[in-house]
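Target chain:
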Amino acid sequence: MQGLILQLTRAGFLLLLWLFVWAVLRTLRSDIYAASGIRPQPRPNRSSRASGLGLGSVRRGQKGAKYLVVTHGSLAGTRITLGAQPVLIGRADDSTLVLTDDYASTRHARLSQRGDDWYVEDLGSTNGTYLDRAKVTTAVRVPLGTPVRVGKTVIELRS
């Protein structure tokens, strides 16, 4: 009877060990390949056919950003109308843009308006905030159409 219990204990321990190894490999794989899933894809050509004007004309005619658009991630297609209030981004329920991303912190980043310009700042997140491909360390001005990456989510300011 004791031999059977010992064999079952060994088999259980071996199963737990393999589950742990599988979980570690799965986590490593998602970390390694995460960057390939969040790179912005080439933007479609915004020619005069689509808007009636060239992109340069549209940007010169508009002052400041009016919308925050999620371009990649689980919330792709989400559009938030910008006002005078800062936009808080993170996993917290009281954030303006609530992310369900494992790579986003509870309070990850903040977009705030200064005059006609919007600035992004990292709020001490674990994985950082990136403007285009540069890591944000202080409040940085966000030009229209420039991707801002928070975890696996990519957002842009649009007019």
